[in-house]
Amino acid sequence: MRARFLPLPGLYLILLTMCSVELFLGGGGVPADLKFATGEFALTTPSETVPEYEISFVQPVGGAPSVHAGTITQLNNGQLLAAWFGGAREGAKDVDIYCSRRLNSYQEWTVPTIIASRKQTTRDLNRYIKKLGNPILFADADGRVWLFYVTVSVGGWSGSSVTVRYSDDNGKTWSTANRLVTSPFLNVSTLAKGSPVQCESGHLLLPVYHEFVRKFGEVLTIDSNGQVVNKIRLTAQGGAIQPWLVPLDQQHSKAFYRNSGGSAQAMLSNDLPNVFDAECESVEATNVPNPDSAVAVIRRHNGGFLMACNPTTEGRHQLSLAVSPDGLNWRLIHDVEDSTPPDEFSYPYLIKGDQGNYHLIYTWKRTKMRHVVFNERWLGDQL
After folding, report:
1. Strand 318-324 relative to strand 331-338, pairing
2. Which residues contact 5 (CB under 8 A, 6 or more apart)?
3. Where does residue 28 rank: exposed (0-12), middle (13-18), buried (19+ CB within 10 A)?
4. What angle do CA 263, 359, 276 make, to 5 degrees?
5. Least enclosed by CB within 10 Å: which of 190, 220, 318, 331?
6. Residue 57 exposure: Cα atoms within 13 Å on the Cβ side
7. Domain residues of the chain, as ranges?
8. Whole-angstrom Cα distance, residue 279 to residue 8?
9. What is the pLDDT along the chain (383 residues), one digit of tens a residue?
10. Helix (H, G, I), strand (E, B), or coil: what is residue 188?
11. Do the beta carbons of residue 126 and residue 108 sit within 8 Å?
12. Which letter, b or e, does each residue of 224-245 get, where b requires 16 or more Cβ atoms within 10 Å of its Cβ?
């Protein structure tokens, strides 16, 4: 009987599937007492006395004809830094990662500059880069600003990996790019969308997701050198992607997911008793529709949850804010945008500011990035 051998693509598929389980990836090692930094879940009482709501476009007229996937962070000097990708269209070879800054005493954003490009990333990584996408900005407690972004060398987004740069001068200059190693074999099919979370030790937890063959959420533990030291799968159920991790105390958190399973799906959520020692968790459907679109969720000052989402059964023509006491039962309270198809307002990204306010950035009709700042008084006291 003649022996049968797996063709090379089949072997790659098996190896990649093996890599989707929990891995310890070496590097600097994972501290045994890894905990969320207190500032990630601390509850405060804002001092504002009047409602505040302001909406503006980040970039001036002109620029790249198509933009998407905004991200925002607040620097230790109080300034805001925003980033997104832009080019002829999503996935085009001319797509770059753009960045703009908002100064303390001005409402205007600075003229965007390029902080990552295909040419620069190809040179830094010493490998061909076909396209860029999904930037993530994060200013850590020590003042270092991290930039994570998706890179693809071959194929579509399912062949992605995540690349990192950092800045120690508030985004004026950036380090050489480094490709995160999330698998000892092919090191593909890792994408990022949600905000990182800082640990007491200085490690970052970066929510990521896998798209090749099966779709599911994961979290990477990254040390101060930008090296992946651990990877944990968050979901046993397929289709729960683009996780957004929300700490509840030093070890417990909730995760929220885009439901990539067709239109009229519900947004998904699960409890993570200890994300640093997690096993595959089942997810629950919330009462919010999710038309295969990204969500952003953060903890409110009063302990509840605040979400930006597209609460429709189909399309991304409505972008709303919703509140919840438990992360499962939500109530829509404000429409940030409300139009008709084919208009699109998508990929929201939420953070808390240092003055107790909230910052939201999102894609506006795939042509501009829009920024909204508001406070608790404007949201109201409801959960």
Report:
1. antiparallel
2. none
3. middle
4. 70
5. 331
6. 13
7. 53-375
8. 31
9. 333 333 433 333 333 333 333 344 444 566 667 899 988 888 888 877 889 999 999 976 667 899 999 999 999 999 999 999 999 999 899 999 999 999 875 678 999 999 999 999 999 999 999 999 999 999 999 999 999 999 999 888 888 899 999 999 999 999 999 999 987 767 778 999 999 999 999 999 999 998 888 889 999 999 999 999 989 888 877 889 999 999 998 888 999 999 987 555 778 888 876 776 666 678 888 999 999 999 999 999 889 999 999 999 999 999 999 999 999 999 999 999 999 999 999 999 999 988 889 999 999 999 999 999 999 999 986 65
10. coil
11. no
12. eebbbbbbbbbbebebbbbbbb
Task: State how far the Cα of 290 lies from the Cα of 284, in Å rounded to an integer.
Answer: 13
Query: Dihedral, CA atoms, 106, 110, 116, 118, nearest 10 degrees?
Result: 150
DSSP 3-state of 86: strand
* Cα of 123 vs its chain's centroid, Å: 25
Residues in a beta bridge with 318: 338
Non-local CB neighbours of 212 within 8 Å, separated by 6+ positions: 16, 158, 159, 188, 189
End-to-end CA distance of the chain: 68
Place of tokens 């003055």: 355
Whose tokens are 């001092």? That residue is 47
- Tokens of residue 106, six digits: 């001005």
Q: Specify whether the CB–CB gap between 194 and 219 falls below 8 A.
A: no
Look at phi and psi of residue 269 and say left if phi exceeds 0, alpha if psi is from -120 to 50, else beta: beta
Q: Hey, is 18 helix, strand or coil?
A: helix
Q: Name residue, tokens 């954003």.
A: 109
Length of the chain as a residue count: 383
Task: Sort residue 244 into left (φ over 0), alpha (ψ -120 to 50) or beta.
Answer: beta
Tokens 């970039």 belong to which residue? 59
